Amino acid sequence: xxxxxxxxxxxxxxxxxxxxxxxxxxxxxxxxxxxxxxxxxxxxxxxxxxxxxxxxxxxxxxxxxxxxxxxxxxxxxxxxxxxxxxxxxxxxxxxxxxxxxxxxxxxxxxxxxxxxxxxxxxxxxxxxxxxxxxxxxxxxxxxxxxxxxxxxxxxxxxxxxxxxxxxxxxxxxx
Length: 174
Known about the structure:
It is a single chain. The chain is an alpha/beta fold. The chain contains four helices and six strands, in the order ααβαββββαβ. The protein has two domains: 47 residues; 99 residues, Barwin-like endoglucanases.
């Protein structure tokens, strides 16, 4: 068996001369930043962090995950079942959040912008009762949604629909 050799400093820098340059660059950036922070602190001034400013701006506008109220989002809604055709290698009976699928379950697969546990109302699905986001999908990006059915026949029957889906996020969201 052939041994692999790594050249460079800790396998990170291919050129050993780059290490002193990186240390110097770090010192040039960090030292003045620390000095400015100390001067402002000794003078009694407050330093407003950029992240704090952004947080304040974001909090002034209600978003999904904060309001707890229903918001309507136009979505392309398709369907799937736990079979090999629909789920491929992930047809193991568990969703992306490790939920074990049981007979009669109703839930949806949604984009990562919707946290697991987010409730949704999908017209024509689950007798008008809210369902939770419990899964993800390789083709589920943006305003796409996959509703879950127990059989492939039911999933095919659903087809592709463009619907106004009501989305609620808030305390119940994980």
